[in-house]
């Protein structure tokens, strides 16, 4: 059982502060890999919670591998995001205040193999990003699009 599962047993749905690691994976054509979540049917990049004692960069690589089957090599820090727009209530009622550390990475290829957390995946051109984005990812994605105008 994971750290957050154990915490949820103690605190129920009450808000938790969660440090997350997210990777904007770009392919050789500059397209962004997004995954469709099974729980809210929204799109977002691979990522997830940093476990106690885990190095954030390693969490980013681990989550990307677990969720996509892709091994990420070199990453660059894109930004650290926190505040009201990082609050999220999961469909099951769990609440979190995210501190999301986001990286950029180029992945030249490889076969995507989804975890059960997701139902679809696709590389999107930056001018074709779907509108149904997971809420805490929206401001992060807006910053990405502002830095890489289409």
Write structural notes for this entry.
By secondary structure, the chain is of the alpha+beta class. The protein has one domain (3-140): Nucleoside Triphosphate Pyrophosphohydrolase, CATH 3.90.79. Strands 1, 4, 5, 6 and 7 form a five-stranded mixed sheet that branches. It has helices at 3-11, 56-68, 138-147, and strands at residues 16-26, 32-37, 43-44, 47-49, 75-81, 87-89, 95-106, 118-124. The relative contact order is 0.26.
Task: List the topology elements.
Elements: H1 3-11, E1 16-26, E2 32-37, E3 43-44, E4 47-49, H2 56-68, E5 75-81, E6 87-89, E7 95-106, E8 118-124, H3 138-147
CATH architecture: Alpha-Beta Complex
Order of helices and strands: HEEEEHEEEEH
* Annotated CATH homologous superfamily: Nucleoside Triphosphate Pyrophosphohydrolase
Which residue ranges are poorly predicted, with pLDDT under 50 across at least 5 consecutive positions? Answer: none
CA radius of gyration: 15 Å
Strand content: 25-35%
Tally of DSSP helical segments? 3
CATH overall fold name:
Nucleoside Triphosphate Pyrophosphohydrolase
Number of strands: 8
| CATH uppermost class | Alpha Beta
**Main sheet specs:** 5 strands, mixed
Overall, the morphology is globular
| N-to-C CA distance | 43 Å
Q: Summarize model confidence as the mean pLDDT.
A: 94
Overall number of domains: 1
Structural class: alpha+beta
Instruction: Give the helix level as a range of percent.
Output: 10-25%
């Amino acid at each position: 059982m994971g750290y957050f599962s154990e915490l949820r047993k103690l605190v129920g749905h009450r808000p938790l502060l969660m440090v997350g690691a997210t990777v904007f994976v770009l392919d050789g054509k500059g397209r962004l890999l997004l995954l469709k979540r099974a729980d809210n049917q929204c799109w977002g990049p691979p990522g997830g919670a940093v476990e106690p004692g885990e190095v954030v960069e390693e969490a980013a690589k681990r989550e990307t591998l677990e969720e996509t089957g892709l091994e990420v090599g070199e990453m660059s820090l894109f930004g650290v995001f926190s505040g009201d727009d990082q609050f999220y209530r999961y469909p099951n009622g769990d609440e979190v205040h995210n501190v999301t550390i986001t990286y950029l990475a180029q992945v030249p290829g490889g076969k995507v193999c989804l975890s059960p957390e997701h139902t679809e995946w696709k590389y999107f051109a930056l001018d074709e990003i779907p509108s149904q984005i997971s809420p805490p990812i929206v401001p992060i994605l807006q910053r990405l699009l502002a830095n890489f105008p289409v």
